[in-house]
Amino acid sequence: MLAKGIQLTILIGPIVPIPVPQMVIDALDHVEITTAAGSRSGFQMSLQFSSKSQLNTFFIIAGAMNSGPSTPPLRVMLIVTLNGTPQPLFDGVMTNVEVHAGSGGAPGLVTVTGEDLTKMMDMIDFSGLPYPAMPIEARVALICAKYALFGLIPLIIPILFPDVPIPVDKIPAHKGTDLHYLQHLAHQAGYLFYIEPGPVPGTNIAYFGPEIKVGVPQPALNVDMDALTNVENLSFTFDPTVGKLPVVYIQNQLTRLPIPIPIPNINPLQPPLGLLPTPISNLEVLKDTAKMNPMQAILAGLNKAKESQDSVSANGNLNVLHYGRPLKARQLVGVRGAGIAYDGLYFVKSVTSTLKRGEFKQSFKLTRNGLVSITPRVPV
Questions:
Q1: What is the C-alpha separation between 222 and 350, in angstroms, rounded?
Q2: Regarding the domain delimited by 6-116, which CATH topology (the fold level of the hierarchy) does it fall under?
Q3: Phi, psi of 103 (to 5 degrees)
Q4: Distance CA 365, CA 380 (A)
Q5: Which residues of 51-62 are buried (b: 16+ CB within 10 A; e: fewer)?
Q6: How do residues 229-275 score in pLDDT, each as one tens digit?
Q7: b/e per residue, 358-375, with b = 16+ CB within 10 A?
Q8: What is the DSSP secondary structure assignment for residue 297, as one 8-state letter?
Q9: How many angstroms separate the Cα of 234 from the Cα of each of 151, 229, 315?
Q10: I want to staple 119 with a disulfide (CB 3.0 to 4.6 A). Which of 69, 115, 335, 341 is the partner?
Q11: Which CATH class is domain 124-209?
């Protein structure tokens, strides 16, 4: 039990994890979970123990179950129940166990570290596996099917400009691990690939598609609003020098001369969140695009354009009990009470959740591509 209305459930085991024994819950010091756009999710769990603690036996058994070359790492699920509703915070595998022995009568500390299920995709090299006449979407679905035992549900967004190689000309082949190849395909299409837990415990969404900055925002973060305040602190940064205009080269098939084409950020899935957009401060020439076909070059330019538009960022902390629900990364959230320049909708770039006995807090980072809200009112 963490606090009134909040309960943490820890499950550990191969493939299908089971609840940990009570001795693990009793020894728990704190849990930290990090979710961020553009990187893997991870967790770190600290437990207090002594040389005579039964935790030693527990980790010996866990290590024996995880010692075979064909045995997958132990799966770890962290589920928080808030006001009677279970919500998966993390689903992945244990990657490291570090022990700090106690001294002077003080208890020792066991630190367990893990990563999300993309770690399972980065363990075996499948280089050379052919994919004849298969579009990118079919290749992604086939790769994700290997991990159905972990509750992996693929969510694949069709590519706007598909490029299906003709078998007599070229047969695509797998390169590296499954994760490496999926990230390679995502980069080619200007997409992202990541895994997030949910929508229910035991399942995971494997998302392959564009970064989406539209949708229903989460409840607003209120700053300096007396009884309505639900964040402990929030600070903002504005950098007008980050804006770049990518320039791609497309080769003329007749003259073999490269043609430069500037690519503005016109992605409908990432509309402006600020009324005063990020100014363009410099040009960035993508020289490798001359080797691509025109569609691939344009996608590469759009992918680069979206990376350099977030001139406004915010960092803060909140108490989940005051906020009413866990803040989630990769979604929109509103901000109120920060002033005309910084109020409005933001994209949640990263969230770090820290759970201790009696508290559940989160630190977060928000980003936006301009100043001044585009909406007259922020949804509460």
A1: 18
A2: Thrombin, subunit H (2.40.10)
A3: -150, 155
A4: 19
A5: eebebeebbeeb
A6: 999 999 999 998 887 788 887 776 677 777 777 877 666 667 788 88
A7: eebbbbbbbbbbbbebee
A8: H
A9: 36, 11, 6
A10: 115
A11: alpha beta
Going from N- to C-terminal start, the domains of the chain cover 6-116, 124-209, 218-238+311-373, 244-307
Angle at 235 between CA 229 and CA 240, to 5 degrees: 135
Look-up of token digits 């959230």: 333
CATH topology of domain 218-238+311-373: Phage tail proteins - horseshoe like beta roll fold (2.30.300)
Asked if 340 contacts 372 with a C-beta cutoff of 8 angstroms, the reply is: yes
Length of the chain: 380
Query: What pLDDT, on a 0 to 100 scale, did the predictor assign at position 57?
Result: 64
| Number of C-beta neighbours around residue 353 at 10 A | 22
CB atoms within 10 A of CB 282: 10
Contact 196, 310 (CB under 8 A): no
Confidence of residue 206 (pLDDT cuts 50, 70, 90): very high
| pLDDT for residue 363 | 97
Binned at pLDDT 50, 70 and 90, residue 303 comes out as confident
